[in-house]
Structures are given as structure tokens and as C-alpha cells.
Model the fold of this input.
Amino acid sequence: MAAGKPLGKRTARWLRRNPLGLSTDVIVESRESIDFPGLCVVCGKDVSGTSVRLRGNPVGFHGMLPWIIQRTKPLIVPAHRSCGRVLWLTVLWRNMSLLVLATAGVALALWLEWSRWQALGLVTGLVAVPILWHVFCPVAFEFTFKGGRFVLSFRDHELAVKVAEMNEGVVEEDVNRCR
Done:
């Protein structure tokens, strides 16, 4: 985009609906489950008792295998059926893209007989794309669970604060927030 050129109407509308910014994390210690207000974690509207079951994100070096075979911690979250499906597919797409891009990078480097450093650079570059996308356009909600501790990540800061209050959690304020 040229300097000084105004944004197109579609781009401006998309940015208003999807502001670029980091997610807000809520840390909740020693709970079996999490209490949520009666709002959809994706769209923020009343859910009237509907919910979806999500699995925690992979944690650690060997975290992808338990995630693939569905051995990570489940959590019931309030969401409309359609919102929950979009959320689940978004997390699935992001995690699988990381796995596929890393594997493809290693395979390509082996096929081209590159050195370790060249292979590392290729894999790092390929994996950086979905990671950067996730940082600047976070999903509406996701969580990790390890050692009795939930780390809940919300795109909606106000919803994060409500959930923290309901569960005696701590809102991890980020000084780099873009909003």
C-alpha cells in the first residue's frame, strides 16, 4: 500500500471487526473446570445454555502427540454451535499447519541435502508464518492446561476479566497490547 493512500472500505470494515492485537491471558490455578458467564466466547452474545467441548493446546516438546490422539485436557465452554465449530476448526488449522509445515521443511531440506543450519533456517521460516498469524490475529478463545493450571487466552479483554473474577484467576496484562 502506498504511503498516504486510504484503506479500502472492505479492509477498514474488516479491521474494525478484527482489531489487530494480542490476546488477554487469564491464569487459574488448581481448578478442575472453569466457570464462564453466559456469553459465547467467540461472538460475545447470549448462549442460552449451549456449549462446546474443546481440547487444550499442545504443551511442551512432546505436546503435539497427546493433542493429536485427544489426550489433552477437555473444557466445556459456552458457545453457539456454529461459533464453536469455527473456533475448533481455527485451532485445528493452526496446529496442523505448524505440524505439516515443520515436517515439509525437514523433508525438503533432507531431499535437497542441505546442512543443518540451512534446514533449521527453512523450518523456522515456514513455522514463523502461522505463529505470526496467531500472534497478530488470535483466535477468540483457547487454553492450555498443565500441572493443575489453566492458561485461558481470550481475544475479548472484557470477557477475560469477567472469567478471571468468576474463577479467582489472574489477568496477565501485557504491556505490548495493541488495542
User: Anything to note?
Assistant: The beta strands are 24-29, 51-55, 74-78, 141-146, 149-154, 170-172. The helical segments are 9-17, 64-68, 81-111, 116-136, 157-166. The longest strand covers residues 24-29.
